[in-house]
Amino acid sequence: MKIGIDASRALIKQRTGIEEYAYQTIKNLREPLGGHEVFLYIKEKDQKNLDFKLPVNWTLKVVPFNYFWTQLGLSWEMLMRPTDILFIPAHTVPFVYPRKTVVTVHGLEYEHCPEGYSLYSRWFHHFFITRSCRWAKKIIAVSQNTKKDLKKIYKIPKEKISVVYNGFELSGGSNEMVTEKEEVNYILYIGRIEERKNIKNIVKAFEILKKKYGYKGELLLAGKSGYGHEKIKETIKKSEFKKDIKCLGFISDKEKQELLTDADLFLFPSLCEGFGIPILEAQSVGTPVVTSNFGPMDEVAGNNEILAIPTHPKHIADVAQRIISDEKKCKEVVKKGFENTKRFSWKKCGEGVAKVLLN
Predict the structure, then answer these.
(1) CA distances from residue 7 to 19, 90, 274, 286, 358 in whole angstroms, order as listed
(2) Residues 101/136, Cβ–Cβ less than 8 Å
(3) Taking residues 315-338, what's their average pLDDT?
(4) In this model, does residue 177 exceed pLDDT 90?
């Protein structure tokens, strides 16, 4: 059987959420799809970034279009050299597609938090994802929450949707929880610096922790700039604790692991999210997490004690303080978090995706 996979998002250097999903899923499809002829469709500039070995019956196929790569380049490939199955890891199905096309939808955040997206971005996501859901024979949702949204907002039949959870991986990590940390004090956020990630309320919660509870550490914000980052930087500039707030920009996998390992707390009270991989990354190294009490975050986090109301900075601060000020409670949260991570892996994700593709 010939299987085509859109790998255009998988081989870029600075991967974030969807790119990481594409990379890890393709990597973990090698074993379950080992007996099939597979074509990975990529952009010319990215072929040098492949850093894992392909099975002998897998082919890296460069699609030479610089603009409108999916709708022109991949459509042309499907027209001239169609496959039996096409897998789209990043929610945009080309105009020309085989009868059995499977698409992953990572969330409908643009519907829930329209103010967190530009007008063009909202239109683009709505236009292509609604059509992708209509065109695809099967849809993979990364959470039960996304499946619920697809049924409620886009009226997709539940029989068409399969839930396959994301995995997570920290480079150089192990399955052992870190018990000794460096003597440094900081609260950490990792993700895009954009409005829908609720950075302003993270800053406000940090200010409450400093003023009300006397927290001595810093707030570290790590990630690429996204939509609305200028307003976020203005909020930081106006903070009376601006000297204690550091914006680190994009960080490497090694830096991410080091920062997560030594953090007092990982703060992730996003307003809308597709999944929330950083929650699991923090839990896996023994760092307590505070995240949002709705969406997929409560589904992924696995512990009601670490959930906060993301629109209420005081509640975020109170939940955070309850954890970091009580050593017994903190150890309890860390233990539950580490156990929670065992539900998720990229190997399980790859196996789940393969099952949807082949059934």
Answers:
(1) 9, 9, 20, 33, 19
(2) yes
(3) 96
(4) no
Q: What is the DSSP letter of 225?
A: B
* Residue type (1 letter), 286: G
For 32, the token pair is 């379950």
Q: Which one-letter DSSP state was computed for residue 291?
A: E
In angstroms, the CA 63 to CA 80 distance is 12
Q: Which of 329, 358, 359, 354 is nearest to 25 (CA)?
A: 354
The rounded percent of the chain whose pLDDT value lies above 70 is 96
Distance (Å, whole) CA 179 – CA 58: 42
CA distances from 308 to 202, 285, 289 (A): 11, 21, 10
Assigned architecture for domain 2-167+345-358: 3-Layer(aba) Sandwich (3.40)
Residues 268-296 have pLDDT tens digits of 999 988 899 999 999 999 999 999 998 89
- What DSSP character marks residue 172? T
Beta bridge partners of 6: 41
CA–CA–CA angle 85, 40, 19 (5° rounding): 105
pLDDT, residue 179, reads 54
Q: Is the pLDDT of residue 180 over 80?
A: no
Residue 92 and residue 26: Cα distance in Å, rounded? 17
How many CA within 13 A on the CB side of residue 1?
Answer: 15
User: For 213-222, how does the pLDDT look when each residue is reduced to its tens digit (9 = 90+)?
Assistant: 999 999 999 9
Is 186-343 in the same CATH topology as 2-167+345-358? yes
Residue 269, classed as helix, strand or coil, is coil
Over residues 85-100, mean pLDDT: 96
State pTM to two decimals: 0.88
Residue 219 φ then ψ, to 5°:
-115, 120
Instruction: Read off φ and ψ for residue 218, nearest 5 degrees.
Output: -105, 170
Fold of the CATH domain 186-343: Rossmann fold (3.40.50)
